[in-house]
User: What shape does this take?
Amino acid sequence: AAPIPSIGGIPLKYVSLVTLAVQNSMLTIIMHYSRVSIPSSRMYSAATAVLMNEVLKGSISLFIAFCRIEPSSSAEPSVLISLRPRVFMSKFRKLSRDIFSTDCWKLSIPAVLYVIQNNLQYVAASNLPAATFQVSYQMKILTTAAFSVVMLRKKLTSLQWVSLLALAIGVGIVQIQSGVAAHHGSSLELSTMNASKGFLAVVAACFTSGLAGVYFEMVLKNSQADLWVRNVQLSLFSLLPCLAHIVFSDSAAVSFGSSGWFSSLFSNFGLWAWATVLVQVLGGLVTAMVIKYSDNILKGFATSLSIVISFLASVALFDFRMTWPFIIGSAVVLNATWMYNQHPQRVRIVTGRDLKA
Ligand code: C5P
Assistant: This one.
């Protein structure tokens, strides 16, 4: 059997799950702060942030994929050997063949879905208190389970179905207080936040998250292709929808006329915007590892752990007031997630034959 990948003796599965939990809470807070702490006249473009996320993530994945190719012409296991022009070119050719393989088109579907989702996240983070966004976003466990049942033919136990129902109820309870919480925000937050717009964005993002995640898992586990090659393919297919969003979004179209396109793309793109992008890049890379080494359902468990971290940070940083509906709703969500992960069923991955049937 292939050795289980690990870092310092700890299986990569657990390292990636814990990293994802911490990354998720950091992202919720940094993204929220980067959007609501600045007046809308000085707001950075979310579409540019999503594009930068894909460019950086794609470049890092390309670098890792390149390093992972064994130089075929030599037995010397040295990094330096890759810099020899002949070895470099042969690795480059092999990598290009892998990236532009006949089945690379499969990644176009999750790529488009993730671009939509990443843009919706900014809408949600701009219109909901950070902790409310975090809890509502747990509904993606529900959509992920539904798509896993349909696409991966996964069987759920009755306890898991009950916990999914509890999850939906918990999110509903938390929603009751989102309007109340907004009234405790600063006057700047009050004037810019729109709870129903934010909630609609979260619901839509939960659908794309479930569908894209399960689709990516299906593609990944049904072929021998390297994870990092798949990530490069995903980022490449994301570029077109990212650019389309920039070109066709109203605000960009207006500003393109008055100044150069490059400066309008990056206008107001300050420290917080870059911090948001970098945390998102980390999240993308870790998410891919979690999907590969465990699965989408365990990913949900990791992100629900991040609720607790975000709660405490929101109280400290944003003067977030905890109300009873919020505390009860969040406890129900956490409990539902824990219940869901009791005796998880083995995922039956559909094979190529199933897909043709
Ligand atoms: O909320 P959810 O877990 O669905 O978010 C997944 C995030 O991870 C998205 O921002 C998506 O762009 C990113 N991702 C990625 N590469 C993958 C899978 C997901 O960058 N292979």
The chain is about 75% helix and 0% strand. The mean pLDDT is 82. Residues 114 and 251 are 22 Å apart (CA to CA).
